[in-house]
Amino acid sequence: MNSVGEACTDMKREYDQCFNRWFAEKFLKGDQGGDPCTESFTRYQRCVQTAIKEKDIPVDGVEFMGPNKDKPES
Amino acid sequence: MKIWSTEHVFSYPWETVIKAAMRKYPNPMNPNVVGVDVLDRSLDAEGRLHSHRLLSTEWGLPGIVRAILGTNHTQTYVQEHSIVDPEKKKMELCSTNITLTNLISVDERLLYSPHPDNPDVTILTQEAIITVKGLSLGSYLEGMMAMRMSANAIKGWDAIEWIIKNSERENVPLCDIY
């Protein structure tokens, strides 16, 4: 599966692989510790947030700092 | 505004269905979903997992509808919040489109829980509210969207079953296959 940001796809896959393993093997089995994927997630998230800003996708909770921030809706 | 709802029973335990639901894309039944991103994810004090995801989809409406809506934007984005409660065995997922919102809104809610009398079976209840805005053909389009929801729901169930069968048969995490 791809990321919205082409440059982020590899990072996303690395994170997904880590997360899916933790989700199936720990979380669903009642292990209450957090996932061990923080590092790959942070890297991936930074990339995605940049892509979202560049594409001006109106996602909640993402700071829009881009040049289109104050543009009225067309 | 049109309200649509349905229910489906999976012949698998909750954990199996949830594993598949979390990694539902990509699958051959939903080729319109071209991207999935996790925007935020956290555990709350009760041990529930919250995920905030962004789905990139190709707007697969018929040409006539695109003409009525007056848009050539085929890519649209959906925002999705989900909560998985491993203790209560409940997964709730809410999604809404975040582009083309001046034309249409589709708010959907899915709930996966074990069958109260049979833990080997999982029930999915699914409901949606469809609103087409400011168009004289609004109710026609809403009806059309509701029909699409029904068709898409079946694809979604097939997708989950497909994920379960494929990941179990090959006995490898699906995320390793691209």
Task: Quickly list its features.
heterodimer; A: 74 residues; mainly alpha; 2 helices; 47% helix; 0% strand; B: 178 residues; alpha+beta; 7-stranded antiparallel sheet; 28% helix
Q: What do these coordinates show?
A:
The complex is a heterodimer of chains A (74) and B (178). Chain A has 74 residues and is mostly helical. Chain A has two helices and no strands. The longest helix of chain A is centred in the middle third of the chain and has 18 residues, at 38-55. Mean pLDDT of chain A is 84; it is low at 63-74. The N and C termini of chain B lie far apart (39 Å). Chain B has 178 residues and is of the alpha+beta class. A seven-stranded antiparallel β-sheet of chain B has the order 1-7-6-5-4-3-2. Chain B has helices at residues 14-22, 63-69, 138-170, and strands at residues 2-10, 33-43, 49-58, 75-85, 90-97, 104-115, 118-132. Chain B has three helices and seven strands, in the order βαββαββββα. Chain B is globular, with a radius of gyration of 17 Å. The A-B interface holds A 1-5, 8, 12-13, 15-17, 19-21, 23-24, 27-30, 32, 34-35, 41, 44-45, 48-49, 52, 57-62, 73 and B 15, 18-19, 22-23, 25-26, 34-41, 43, 47, 49, 52, 54, 56, 77, 79, 84, 86-87, 98-99, 102, 173-176, 178.
Quick summary:
Chain A: Keywords: Disulfide bond. Chain A has 74 residues and is mainly alpha-helical.
Q: What's the layout of helices and strands?
A:
The complex is a heterodimer of chains A (74) and B (178).
Chain A: H1 9-25, H2 38-55
Helix pairs in contact in A: 1-2
Chain B: E1 2-10, H1 14-22, E2 33-43, E3 49-58, H2 63-69, E4 75-85, E5 90-97, E6 104-115, E7 118-132, H3 138-170
Antiparallel strand pairs in B: 1-7, 2-3, 3-4, 4-5, 5-6, 6-7
Helix pairs in contact in B: 1-3
- Order of secondary-structure elements of chain B: EHEEHEEEEH
Number of strands of chain B: 7
Instruction: Give me the side-by-side strand order of the main sheet of chain B.
Output: 1-7-6-5-4-3-2
The DSSP helix count of chain A reads 2
Q: Name the assembly state.
A: heterodimer
Q: How much strand of chain A?
A: under 5%
Roughly what is the average pLDDT of chain A, rounded to an integer?
Answer: 84
Please provide the ordered H/E string of secondary-structure elements of chain A: HH
Domain PRELI/MSF1 (chain B): 1-172
InterPro entries (chain B): PRELI/MSF1_dom, Slowmo/Ups
Pfam family, one (chain B): PRELI
Protein name (chain B): PRELI/MSF1 domain-containing protein
